[in-house]
Amino acid sequence: MVATAQSTYNSMVSLWSARRISILLTIVALVLWSYSITQTKLNIDFYGLIHSFPVTFFLALGILTIASAILWVSKDNHEKLLFFQVSLLIVSLWLVPLLIGGSQPVAFHVQQKFTENVSPIIQRGYLSGGIWYHSWPAMWIEGAALLDVLGLHSSEVMIFLTPCLVQFLFLLPLYVFLRNTFGKGRNNYYWAGIWLFELANWLEQNYFGPQAMALLLILMLLAILSRPLASNDRVGTVNYTTGGDSIGIVLIFACLTVTHVLSSLVALIMIALVYIVNRKSMRLNLFILPAVFIVAWMVYQTTAFFESNIQTYMERAFRLDLTLWSDIFGGTSGSRGIAGSESHQVVSTIRIVTSAIFASITLIGMILSRWFKEKTLSDNTVMAIGTGVLLGLISGLYGMEMLQRSWFFFLPVVAYFGMKLLNHKVTTFAFCLLLLVSLPFHFISHYGNEAIDYFSRGYEAGLNYVSEVKQSSDYPFAIVNQINWEEGQLVFAKSFPQGKHYLAISRFYDSYYTFLYNRPDYVDSIWDWLYNSNSYDYIYANPEFDLYINQAR
Questions:
Q1: Which helix (H) or strand (E) holds 85?
Q2: Cys bridge to 415: 149, 197, 260, 473, which one at CB 3.0-4.6 A?
Q3: Across the chain, how many H-helices and E-strands are there?
């Protein structure tokens, strides 16, 4: 009786100590965080957007990490508090940088695609085959429907909020996947996996577009595929014969295929490998039915896309040279690996280090799990999922963005094996230390290219003027990368418009060529030449954007 009472007392002290310490640290972090937000101001410098935040901002996130870590290793359930802490982390990583005036990566690209694919649906009320972006229209239909339901007349709010909102949408399927694979009883661990997922997700794939929706659908697919593992402790068989699972998998694949065909192919490889691991209990039709749907869609709807890209895919398949491997660290579309200005090279190097940190956590988790023989079947299934992503990588499906896309879909594997480090005291300390180090690294990796991601008001005003001109003029518009500056003269590319045309030039291109190509005087030279040219007349100008017209070339 005395021993039981003493044990209960010790448990209560332990419970309240962990909870109270975590709450106290969370309050301190929240106060520091709130103060830091009032001190932030847009400042794009050598390391990108990170210069905009005071040291107290990162101190607050560090304290918040420690507050969560205290609860991760607790044997009692603290999920409500952990959810609040994760939510504050998500807002800090994905919304605060935009609230201070920064731009999300590839924001202009997103705006263009949104205008080209969503606006016509809203205006016409139906989807025209001519505007199908790569023949996967689901994301654009959903965007148009959401704008209509919310009564919004502009895409800016949706594009602005999407990077943060999709992180919250990822939470439920990711949580279910981690619970199923890791097993019930250590619920706090799942939030450590989610924390790791968010910090490792520094990539430029979370914008309003098919890629983010594809990851959400893949997470939902993994949640279903892993469901039978929830009751399996170490070894044995699992039951994939439930009809509801089959229907759910087929429906998700149908949505995934019409959202992003290439991602559905990677998901199909995942299912094939999961089938190999669990072939004694998994029905083959869970692979066959999605395969039939994908093939049918490819044959009847995406023919033009694959016909125009098949040769490129064949040339790229299983090619893993340094140029392709360095692309993940280069940044936005159009960058050239780790070349460019000193700032770009340093940011790219930090991206390598950041990725190495999370890759190391994953590898250590794999080794520990194998060494101690923890949940062998779940490990094999998750490794099969990761192998499926790697096979998609070496196939070259994603082109020059293949490493970024592959890492994006590999994140659930990182989260799962990262949790394994919490099973041992020494690795728990190392895990938390690496998370603290990765906080500033995440900001540099994610927002380090802000020099070319940021679009000023002047640039936006110039683009709006160009849109108005396009509605009343048939003259083609030339862009700066269609010309070159050689020995004091402009040299025009073959694709440069012949005859009358417009030519826009802005400070954005100045940042672009300086950051990515280390050519700080390039755009200024062209700008001066245009200003003094007898062939071009400017018809619009603001401090950051000029529009010229060539009447008789």
A1: helix 79-94
A2: 197
A3: 24, 6
CB-count exposure of residue 253 (10 Å: 0-12, 13-18, 19+): buried
Question: Would the pTM of this model clear 0.85, i.e. be above it?
Answer: no
Mention every residue, 6+ apart, whose C-beta is less than 8 A from residue 69: 192, 428, 432, 435
Residues 6 or more apart from 293 whose CB is under 8 A from it?
A: 250, 253, 254, 257
Helices (H), 226-260: 243-259
Return the number of other C-beta atoms located less than 10 Å from residue 457's C-beta: 11
Distance CA 437, CA 427 (A): 15
| Amino acid letter, 120 | P
- CA 233 from chain centre, in angstroms, equals 33
Q: What is the DSSP string of 366-399?
A: HHHHHHHT-SHHHHHHHHHHHHHHHHHHHTTTTG
Could you tell me the two tokens for 245?
């699972």
Contact residues for 348 (Cβ-Cβ < 8 A; gap 6+): 326, 329, 330, 331, 337, 338
| CA distance linking residue 409 with residue 382, whole number of Å | 12
CB 159 within 8 A of CB 110: yes
Give the count of beta carbons closer than 10 Å to the beta carbon of residue 255.
Answer: 18
Q: What is the pLDDT along the chain (553 residues), one digit of tens a residue?
A: 445 544 553 554 455 688 889 999 999 999 999 999 999 998 888 888 899 999 999 999 999 999 999 999 888 888 999 999 999 999 999 998 888 887 776 655 566 666 666 666 666 665 555 445 556 677 677 777 777 666 665 566 677 788 888 899 999 999 999 998 887 778 899 999 999 999 999 987 777 777 888 888 999 989 888 877 766 544 444 455 455 667 778 788 888 888 877 788 888 888 888 878 776 556 666 777 777 777 777 666 565 555 545 555 545 544 444 444 444 444 443 344 566 788 888 888 898 899 899 999 999 999 988 887 766 778 888 888 888 887 776 655 555 566 777 788 899 999 999 999 998 889 999 999 999 999 999 999 999 888 888 777 788 788 778 877 877 777 888 777 777 777 666 777 776 777 788 888 888 888 888 888 888 888 888 888 887 878 888 888 888 888 888 865 4
Contact 101, 51 (CB under 8 A): no
Strands 501-506 and 477-478: parallel
The distance from CA 87 to its chain's CA centroid, rounded to whole angstroms, is: 17
How many alpha carbons lie under 13 Å from residue 145 in its C-beta half-sphere? Answer: 7
Q: How far is CA 543 from the centre of its chain?
A: 33
Task: State the Cα–Cα distance between residues 409 and 215, nearest whole angstrom.
Answer: 6
What lies within 8 Å, CB to CB, of 297 at 6+ separation is 257, 258, 261
Burial class (CB in 10 A: 0-12, 13-18, 19+), 466: middle
Say which DSSP state 48 is in: B
